[in-house]
Amino acid sequence: MLKPKPRVAFFEFTDCEGCQLQVANLGEALLELTKLVDIVNFREIMSEDGQEYEVLIVEGSVASKHDEERLKKIAAKAKVIVALGACATIGGVNNLKNLKSLDEQKKAVYGSVDPVPDAIATKPIDEVVKVDYYIHGCPIYGPEFVKVMECILLGKPYHVPNYPVCVECKQNENVCAYDKGLFCLGPITRAGCNSWLPNHGSVCVGCRGLLDNPASDAQKDILEKYGLTVDGILDKFTLYCASSKESAKYGKEFKK
Ligand code: SF4
Ligand code: SF4
């Protein structure tokens, strides 16, 4: 159990900082949180740069040797480590870099100059340090962040839902995207976002990663009904789930 009013620090690696923006936009809930924790480092909302903390919230993927060393160093000071957003939890869009060899990607982006000689294949942060709490999504869903912070303060684990987004979508009484002629990854994506995108007429894009044990047979029935293939749906998953950890759940290795 942490001491009362633990110090919390946010640090970012390879990412767009959109997940921290979600936290910054929490409004009233963020003000309430500051009564319970002492935020010492969060560059989107404050200029202080505290380096002592109990709770470390990491956004972004590890993409270089320097990232690896820095992450180990800042993690060593923390009692609790939180992975914030798809870049940190599953590698997210950054894993697209791994679909070709590092040399090929560097040539395509930088030509003959190599400004990042220590670049490595991109990885989620739990391939470098032990993670205690995962907040999935691109970006994260604000209410889930609040829920995770409550668990941290109470010294309880947070169990990421291991059922599909469709469950939440049905509870929200949405018209299914498939019935509107759209393609949705909700049936095989882990829930926890309260079916955020389908609630607004859009489709799930798989940003929270794959379920551990998807109902494959039921999923195949859906795919057949709508004239889709398993390979087709897996290809759509490469946007967020190209990491070996995620793709291996379906027995498919996207990484080259
Ligand atoms: S998960 Fe998405 S929104 Fe969050 S930092 Fe990564 S790219 Fe940005
Ligand atoms: S819209 Fe997507 S998430 Fe909702 S029920 Fe249909 S397939 Fe599932």
What report would you give on this structure?
- This protein has 256 residues and is of the alpha/beta class.
- The protein folds into two domains: 7-154, Rossmann fold (3-Layer(aba) Sandwich), CATH 3.40.50.700; 165-250, no CATH class.
- It is built from eleven helices and seven strands.
- The model has no long low-confidence stretch (mean pLDDT 90).
- One iron/sulfur cluster (SF4) binds at residues 165-166, 169-170, 174, 176-178, 184, 186-187, 195, 198, 203-204.
The level-1 CATH class of the largest domain:
Alpha Beta
Strand line-up across the major sheet: 2-1-3-5-7
Level-2 CATH architecture of the largest domain: 3-Layer(aba) Sandwich
What is the number of domains?
2
Detail the poorly predicted runs.
Answer: none
The fraction of residues in strands falls at 5-15%
